[in-house]
Amino acid sequence: MATFGNLSARLTDTFKNLRSKGKLSAADVDGTVREIRRALLEADVALEVVKEFTAKVRERALGDEVNQALNPAQQVVQIVNEELVGILGGEQRRLQFAKNPPTVIMLAGLQGAGKTTLAGKLAKWLKGQGHTPLLVACDLQRPNAVTQLGVVAEQAGVAIYAPEPGNGVGDPVKVAKNGVAEARSKQYDFVIIDTAGRLGVDQELMQQAANIRKAVDPDEVLFVIDALIGQDAVATAKAFQEGVDFTGVVLTKLDGDQRGGAALSVRGTTGKPILFASTGEGLGDFEPFHPDRMASRILD
Ligand code: GDP
């Protein structure tokens, strides 16, 4: 799982200083909050999220719950933990299932974010729970995308619906609709739609994703974001929120994320829950996202 190396180390140092004190003065609290603010900014957490977070921590740390605590420093750590869980989404949010199967999940995000890999991971995970997912190849932009999804489907041991080779570029909206119809007629209980991405946010890409969303009315639209993009996470997430109005977030490449800021920023700025975390290139490197576990890892 994510290392969050630098952020964790910075916060640990800050708390070590605090623990050496008995009662905390307002100056102690302010000093600690300043350190936390610096650590979060260095970890690429968006400024608006940092401000809100540190304001909440400061207010609580100066209040009675710390003043009257037997161990004030420990209480401050507890507050930071609780507020971290808060900005990471609070309760774990599970995948929403359709009342009448198939449950349709659409993936959206920039090229290279890890959508195709994620399609395989999700499919494998669902299959392991006794479901019958069908992968639908709607990334018709990249020449290799359909082939890549085929490889992933084979690795996961699940079925794929893709346009016939040699049928020209094809219409991704039509493929999505036909894929869902195929799932319905053959009684697959999940459909995972892989869509095209670009290197940067672009209007045509967003329109295509919006058209697919409109055509198949998915139960979940998952915005897939590479945790390594750091500060760009916020602008990208906001563009996709406006463009496709996603229902949840999947953070990928958390295995390589030394700073961890994206996780804290995306939830904090879009208000959308993080459902899954992807932590490697293998199909098994994937897990449901637990805000409390993530907060503990950051504060470890
Ligand atoms: P797409 O363009 O959004 O479909 O992205 P891909 O699924 O093709 O992934 C782009 C690259 O990132 C591939 O080389 C994947 O193996 C790699 N990748 C995807 N998810 C992860 C992850 O969680 N960790 C690591 N380290 N690599 C990943």
Automatic annotation (TrEMBL):
Keywords: Cytoplasm, GTP-binding, Hydrolase, Nucleotide-binding, Ribonucleoprotein, RNA-binding, Signal recognition particle
Subunit structure of this chain's protein: Part of the signal recognition particle protein translocation system, which is composed of SRP and FtsY.
Written domain comment of the UniProt record: Composed of three domains: the N-terminal N domain, which is responsible for interactions with the ribosome, the central G domain, which binds GTP, and the C-terminal M domain, which binds the RNA and the signal sequence of the RNC.
Function: Involved in targeting and insertion of nascent membrane proteins into the cytoplasmic membrane. Binds to the hydrophobic signal sequence of the ribosome-nascent chain (RNC) as it emerges from the ribosomes. The SRP-RNC complex is then targeted to the cytoplasmic membrane where it interacts with the SRP receptor FtsY.
Provenance organism: Leucobacter ruminantium
Residues annotated as domain SRP54-type proteins GTP-binding: 273-286
GO biological process: SRP-dependent cotranslational protein targeting to membrane
GO MF annotation terms: 7S RNA binding; GTP binding; GTPase activity
Lineage: Bacteria, Bacillati, Actinomycetota, Actinomycetes, Micrococcales
Gene behind the chain: ffh
Span covered, complete protein: 1 to 300 of 520
Superkingdom as given in the UniProt entry: Bacteria
Catalytic class of the enzyme: hydrolase
Binding site for GTP: 109-116, 194-198, 252-255
Record-given protein name: Signal recognition particle protein
Subcellular localization(s) per the UniProt record: Cytoplasm
Entry's Gene Ontology cellular component terms: signal recognition particle
Record family assignment: Belongs to the GTP-binding SRP family. SRP54 subfamily.
EC code(s) of this entry: 3.6.5.4
